[in-house]
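Below is how a single chain appears once it has passed through the pipeline. First comes the sequence as given, then the structure the pipeline wrote out for it. We keep one example in the README because the format questions we get most often are answered faster by looking than by reading.
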Amino acid sequence: MKNVSIGAWRERTRLGLGLSIIAAGAGLQLLQWLHTAMPG
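Resulting structure:
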């Protein structure tokens, strides 16, 4: 029972990490795009 919960928690953590990394990458790309889109 304990091992199953630990496995699920680890999987959820990995999913959260992946999502946060994707979100960070998208945010950086958006910032870069805004920087290049702004005149001057």
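The first helix runs from residue 2 to 37.

See the next section for the split statistics.
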